Amino acid sequence: MPSTDAHRQPPVTMVSARYITRICSVFFLAIALLPLASQARDYHVTKSGNDSDAGTIQEPLKTIQAAAELAMPGDVVIVHEGEYRERINPPRGGLSDLQRITYKAADGEKVIIKGSEVVKGWERLKGSTWKVSLPNSFFGDYNPFDDLLEGDWLNKKGFNHHTGEVFLNGIALFEKNSIEEVLKSEPYPDARNQEESVYTWFSEVNENSTTIWANFQDLQPNDELVEISARPACFYPDMPGRNYITVSGFVMTQAATQWAAPTAEQPGLIGTHWSKGWIIENNTVSNSKSVGITLGKERGTGQNVWMHNPVKDGATHYNEVIFRALEIGWSKEKIGSHIVRNNEIFRCGQAGIVGSLGGVFSEIYGNHIHDIWIRRIFSGAEMAGIKIHASIDMLISQNRIHNTGRGIWIDWMAQGTRVTQNLLYDNTTDDLFSEVNHGPYLVDNNILLSDVSLRDWSEGGAFVHNLIAGKIRLRKVENRFTPYHLPHSTKVAGLRNNTNGDDRFFNNVFVKTGEADLQNNFESEFYGLELYKEAGYGITAEGNVHYNGATPYEKESNFVVSNYDPGIKIEEVDGSVLLHFKPDDLIESLENRLITTEILGTTIVSECIFEQPDGTPYLLDKDYFGDKRTADPVPGPFRGSNYGKGVLKVW
Fold first, then answer.
1. E strand or H helix that includes residue 315
2. Are 495 and 438 within 8 A, CB to CB?
């Protein structure tokens, strides 16, 4: 109701002036935005197009790069069915979420982007070994067979690898040291697929030509699809700051990607290159020499600095990289906030998704990541299905990750991170590795089924409602000082070494599924929580169930220990994943609490509370499927009504 107090009414002239000023401001803003809105358009690309045409549906372009050169904020590049052998280097990005540049496959059409070229003209050398010589001009300005794989924390396992690859019917062959080794082509002992490892190649590059020898076994290469990688990426900007780009619906494969160390620029088959606001969705990404998708840093803050200066240790170098990144604007306003969702990523030599510093405030969800690091011709410290340095306020959710060596690796500065509703199994190193973090980070409602479910070299974590059916490995890291941050910020609050502990374990199910026998100066291995008594800080444990010989923490409360074996088994059927898991009645005997921010408390070192990225509190009342829990929740990732089924479809 309007006021009747005359002295509260401004003069009519003042009201009119303010009103007119506001109307004029809105009008001029609308006029300023009108050109951008009116210029927004679609560009079409087809295999039969012409890069000199306008890019309309009637006059389409021929290459995606030609469309990228034309696309402005708000525009959409629509690529139609076909195979495009090119590297897309977007010269600009969008301005905001509402004015992004979108690259998408046309609805219902299969669009393949390849970093490779087909090679014919193979000549038999001897037996099943063939050779081909190509002029170096074949490769343009980048020859991956003349580019060595190198970088910090790379273990070459005895010989120099090149970024180039030879592919036979879509499968990468194994690089060898010499022609003699190609002629022999003995199985590679570390490979997960021994039969594949007898398909091999070797190359030599001179001033004029590149010669490749390859052992195709009983296949005739000129009758098969033989391709060699020829480009360092499929979709990757050559400069940082290409913001607000969407890449959707493509098949992208066969790129000669360089090793992606956290102390270097991190190129990927597709990557954001130190930008903000990308959406990478609904793509199939495969056969990257190193990484499928990168959310990494740029080159100026350091380029493999440890390799070039080994006098200082790698941790010191990386701390210096972090502070240099802060100096050039590493912040929520400028970097990160990406979305990587619903992609399938497989057959990459290093990792599925990697990000050093550049993935802050991002979301990675709904991805199927599998068959990573399966040839195992090299190894190193940056290998996983998902490997993130500085997962600040990051959500890693609803991913299926298997046969990746290591599943998820949150390494340094996992603060405000949430790892939830993920399915991990058949990972030979471990499912989840938390390395030298000070928290708070939250791991809830996950299914962790590999031989080692959790490798914990951190402190300040909260583990709630998980199914942990593998071992836990514990280690103090007292010789490295790593950062912790102000809440919801990249700003460094301090550095501290790591003595383990300060963890919370609420409402989990632990199952012993094998034997724990690793005890050395570096790690302790066990089922359940018993050996957390060795941690530097104490932990909180409540509401957990320990099955089949898994043991509780010495100060645990409200828990169950049962010799019962719930019969855990994973079964893959027609693209679905079934979990066989039938607990006994004791799982419903506990009186448990719904876990909240208040219950989780404050971390010791970072002195932060467990809360959502927007500062609102947690109430963990949803299960793995997103179903609502009751006020007296059953332990594990499922609400109680699901346990009686015995078999659950979990993907």
1. helix 314-327
2. no
Report the alpha-carbon distance of residue 447 to residue 400 in Å, rounded: 10
CA distances from 69 to 65, 73, 89, 107, 365 (A): 6, 12, 9, 23, 30
For the chain, report the end-to-end CA distance as a whole number of angstroms. Answer: 56
Cα–Cα distances in angstroms (integers) from residue 86 to residues 37, 171, 229, 572, in the given order: 30, 20, 11, 36
C-beta separation of 588 from 640 below 8 A: yes
pTM of the model: 0.93
Identify the residue whose tokens are 């240790």. Answer: 313
Cα(64)–Cα(51) distance, integer angstroms: 9
Amino acid letter, residue 67: A
314 is written with which tokens? 């790698």
Q: Which pair of tokens denotes residue 60?
A: 């389409």
pLDDT, residue 154, reads 97
The 10s digit of each residue's pLDDT in 182-223 is 999 999 999 999 999 999 999 999 999 999 999 999 999 999
- Tell me which residue of 498, 533, 509 sits closest to 583, measured CA to CA: 509
Residues with Cβ within 8 Å of residue 11, at least 6 apart in sequence: none
Paired tokens of 574: 């027609």
Residues in the chain: 651
Strand order in the sheet with 200-205: 123-126, 129-135, 209-215, 200-205, 174-175
- 135: closest CA among 200, 205, 201, 87? 205
Q: How confident is the model at residue 642 (pLDDT cuts 50, 70, 90)?
A: low
Nearest residue to 623 (alpha-carbon basis) of 473, 465, 479, 467: 465
Q: Closest by alpha carbon to 197, among 182, 179, 178?
A: 182
Res 518: pLDDT = 67
By the 8 A CB rule, do 549 and 541 touch?
no
Q: Who has greater pLDDT, 207 or 17? A: 207
Cα dihedral 244, 250, 251, 252, rounded to 10, equals -30
Q: Are 201 and 215 in contact (CB under 8 A)?
A: yes
As a whole number of angstroms, the distance between CA 221 and CA 215 comes to 9
Cβ contacts of 220 within 8 Å, gap of 6 or more? none
What are the two backbone dihedrals, phi and then psi, of residue 321, each rounded to the nearest 5 degrees? -60, -45
Tell me the three-class secondary structure of 141-170, residue by residue.
Answer: CCCHHHCECCCCCEECCCCCCECCCEEECC
Question: Taking the CA of residue 195 as centre, how many other CA atoms within 13 Å lie in the half-sphere pointing to its CB?
Answer: 2
479: exposed, middle or buried (Cβ count in 10 Å: 0-12, 13-18, 19+): exposed
Tokens 């000082």 belong to which residue? 481
Q: How confident is the model at residue 594 (pLDDT cuts 50, 70, 90)?
A: very high
Element (H, E) at 435: strand 430-435
Q: What is the mean pLDDT of residues 603-630?
A: 97
Closest CA to 602 of 486, 444, 440: 440
> Does the CA dihedral 149-151-156-160 come out positive or negative?
positive
CA–CA distance, 567 with 288 (Å, rounded to integer): 37
Please check the confidence at residue 641 and state whether its pLDDT lies above 80.
no
% of the chain exceeding 90 in pLDDT: 90
| Sign, Cα dihedral of 415, 343, 102, 63 | positive
Q: What is the CB neighbour count within 10 angstroms for residue 104?
A: 18
| Rg of the chain taking only CA atoms, in angstroms | 27
